[in-house]
TrEMBL record, chain A:
This is Pitrilysin family protein. It comes from Polluticaenibacter yanchengensis. PANTHER family: METALLOPROTEASE, PROCESSING PROTEASE. SUPFAM superfamilies: LuxS/MPP-like metallohydrolase (SSF63411). Residues 51-148 form the Peptidase M16 N-terminal domain. Pfam families: Peptidase_M16, Peptidase_M16_C. Residues 184-360 form the Peptidase M16 C-terminal domain.
From TrEMBL, chain B:
Keywords: Hydrolase, Metalloprotease, Protease, Zinc. The keyword Protease applies. This is Pitrilysin family protein. InterPro entries: Metalloenz_LuxS/M16, Pept_M16_N, Peptidase_M16, Peptidase_M16_C. Residues 14-129 form the Peptidase M16 N-terminal domain. Belongs to the peptidase M16 family.
Amino acid sequence: MVDRKTAPSIKNAVDFNIQLQPYQKFTLKNGINVYVIDAGVEEVIQLEWIFMAGNRYETKNLVAAATNHLLKNGTQQYSAFDINEHFEFYGSFLNRACYNETASLSLHSMSKHLDHLLPMVAEVLTNATFPQSELDIFVQNSKQRLSVNLQKSDFVASREIEKIIYGADHPYGKYSSAEAYDALTVNDLKAYYEQYYKNGDCMIFMAGKVPANALDLLEKYFGSLTLTNPVIVVNDEYTEPAQKPYEEDIAVDKDGVQASIRLAQNFPNRLHPDFKEVQVLNTLLGGYFGSRLMSNIREEKGYTYGIHSYIQARKTQSAWMISTEAGRDVAAATIQEVYNEMAILRNELVDDEELMLVKNYILGSLLGDLEGPFQIINRWKSYILNGVGNDYFYESIKTIKEITPQRLQELAFKYLWPEKFYKLVVV
Amino acid sequence: MITFDRFVLDNGLKVLVHKDAATPMAVVNVMYNVGARDENPEQTGFAHLFEHLMFGGSINIESYDEPLQMAGGENNAYTTNDLTNYYLQLPVENLETAFWLESDRMLSLAFSPQSLEVQRKVVCEEFKEHYINKPYGDAWHNFRHLCYKQHPYQWMTIGEKLQHIEDARLEDVKSFFNKHYTPCNAILVVAGNVETEQIKELAEKWFGPIPSGEEYLRNLPQEAEQAEARVQTITANVPLDAFYLGFHMGGRLSDEYYTVDLITEIMGNGGSSRLFQKLVKEDKLFSNISCYHMGSIEPGLIVIEGRLIKGITMQTAEKAVWEQIDTLVQNGVTEAELQKAKNKSESVIAFEDMSLMNRANSLAFYELLGDATLINKELDRYNAVTTAQLQATAAKILNRKNSNTLYYLAQNN
């Protein structure tokens, strides 16, 4: 009979030799760098044009996001409908996204259609017109969406905590409002487009089954654009936005049955010497299903459907965030349990078995995250955009493999104090 | 082309093996032929609650998650109205750990009262988070009841009410397990750099000794053909009026399924779709509108769902939607529109198939439908649809008699 009491022997993930496929790098005539991962079996491709055009560079709220969103809503020759129709006819997806430092345009398509699609991408990046009618629709619909979101305690909590952490005027902390949408003008968008897209700083990331002529096509359609002019970096040095300790309760819905709880502290960026090690401590605390917070607050007490902690990593600075939606009547008890878990990490060494489990989990999960070309290029993209160097991947693995219980306790003692965390409760 | 081998153990467990030598990870997917549709109307939400209990320890193994995480693995599960699916991935070297864990919980759960007690609370918080504490959170609860009068699709997977979950007793848990969580009601898919012979050995070793159980013969009340249009109005504390319109359609294996999929694509998916272009962009009646179908195994629904621009009356908005429907029914679609929808289906399939986990999950789903080889026939089924078929299907389904309309109105508007 099979022995079901004893676990089969395993190979520890710390003993794996995990490799990250290197990218190829090419430079177009005008200096645009192209990073490529050619891999995979499906005949599909992902291309991303990244511009230094995030909200860090805007001088008026929402201009970066609105410009990015309306890039594909009309050019001199084509209407928004024509552009959508073109990409959708080839079964492809043209998306855009705006972050703090960067803003991007991304294309997902079958590899065979690339030559039909790239000319239209170039059109969008050189001839966008930002029609007033499109801006009006965008403003109207964005305001409507915002009015719905403002009734959700989790939405309100997530943006308020960032405001508290970074400050209301900081690119990482400021947020949308109906007034800010109303203040947007076509001229704002055109000027932003001119400076940060047409004359901006661009790089291209390409991954998937790359057709033989892909680089020639990129050279043809993007190699002569007047891109790559350097952007003036605005000054957004961090200033302490509020006095600590900071507590705030916000009421969204008087009948709310759950409280959105956010605890957060400012934390340095990826280049800080503690950053990689703290990732391990964070995983232990609340970074995976078996974490201390989940085990205690969900699996033992049933206060919540989920509780997570994470380093919300951004380029210049980060936040260490603990986030949960908990029953309204157990909100205070939930927060107390979080504090208790911090105390245990400060006061007691993690035992070897739990630490081995966390290491194996992180590394196994990392291995799983490298599946396929899109995942691989996304990892490289993060390293390149954050300026952490090409060895970051292997340095991280080394850190995970080598970290000790003593070091974790030191880090807990340095960071995990309730009074270091801002506390926000939204009902 | 997704290749696989298939065999059946003596106890009835169906096993599919999909080899992919390019990845260091293995995926193990166990699909059980039970969903919210199989629940007692007085004990809804049970299939989903049960999914939570599957992580509360099994007969020989105290914790499911810890050994899996120790082996570098991750897992999750989901419950739908049709089925319950458990999936994990881990480094292929540690594959046997997955067999050990999954077979033990198929053999028997620990049925710990503590686990039931806690997971009842967790699921109640999940219920609150998604369906009570959110604007429009109860829309689907109402809309399902409007559309389905007999069939159990009338309730949501999370359940009818918190009370049903709070009342769950350990003896219900046990009988649910014994009825549904048996080898003959399950499908095991293993994917990754594995050999079929090796999987056969592991399956025989770990799952072979589990008693077969009784095959579950589904005998659910079927929905009678709808005889007249139905309308319901709800008023709630939301900022915007919302509009839901549903039509009954055939099941997953019906001839019209692929045609319907293309209809919804043309009508309401993407920036160049008809409803978006006409009603959001040109007429500015909705801030967003979409058209999709439920993808359910038994006869499902085509749904048109939108939020109105403030100041637009429901009457105006509804009339405009029907104009688009009537235009489709009367004039059909162009060859180019149909080709666009087919091209999109092709690329969606290709993108989905990039993930090993998706492939394993799809194989299990098609096997549950009765034939895993369907996985490689999808594209042909889409490509076979003609504009004439599309128009005929639209006429058959998208009519007033078959319609269910929910007005979800903002208070003080």
